[in-house]
Amino acid sequence: MGQFEYSVIPAPSRGEKAKDAKTPADRYSVALTLELNRMARDGWEYVRADVLPSEERSGLTGRNTVYHNLLVFRRTLAVPAPSQARPPQPEYPAAASPARAPEPVPDLPPAAAPQPSGHATVVSGEPAMGEATPPAPRHAPSQG
């Protein structure tokens, strides 16, 4: 059994003039036929007509029940081809889904690799790899 989507529209409220439509019922039939054929061109299949209540405002504080004549249509939902179908979604929240294994951290070049501590290590007077030698201090020229 296929899945459907539905569309509900108001039924015509008055008839349409036509050459062979002599009575009010004939003119109303023409209007209804035009509406049914318009929806059918877009793939909608007529299901039924319903009269349903709607509570609407009347004045500043009042409410009134009004009945609307509605036309119900349906059409089959397009089912994507199996290659384009989305995989089934889990019925549990994403937070409850199983944890994935962490992705491996790529190897970093030596200059970008983090140091084990916040301080550079100096071995035999040489700066640590990747560190620049600080500039010599500046002294005021001596006058003499």
What does this structure look like?
- The chain is α+β, with helices and mostly antiparallel strands and 144 residues long.
- Helices cover 12% and strands 25% of the residues.
- Strands 1-3-2 form a 3-stranded antiparallel sheet, covered by helices on one side.
- The chain is elongated and about 120 Å long.
- Residues 101-113 have a biased composition (Pro residues).
- It comes from Paracoccus angustae.
- Residues 1-22, 80-144 are annotated as: Disordered.
Q: What layout of secondary structure does this protein have?
A:
Layout: E1 4-10, H1 24-41, E2 45-58, E3 62-76
Antiparallel strand pairs: 1-3, 2-3
Uncertain segments are none
Main beta sheet strand tally, sense and closure = 3 strands, antiparallel
The overall average pLDDT, rounded, is 78
Strand content: 25-35%
Strand line-up across the major sheet: 1-3-2
Number of helices: 1
User: Whole-number radius of gyration?
Assistant: 39 Å
By DSSP, the count of extended strands is: 3
Could you tell me how far the N terminus lies from the C terminus, measured between alpha carbons in angstroms? 106 Å
Q: Briefly note the structural class of the backbone.
A: alpha+beta
N-to-C SSE string, H for helix and E for strand = EHEE
Helical fraction: 10-25%
Shape field:
elongated
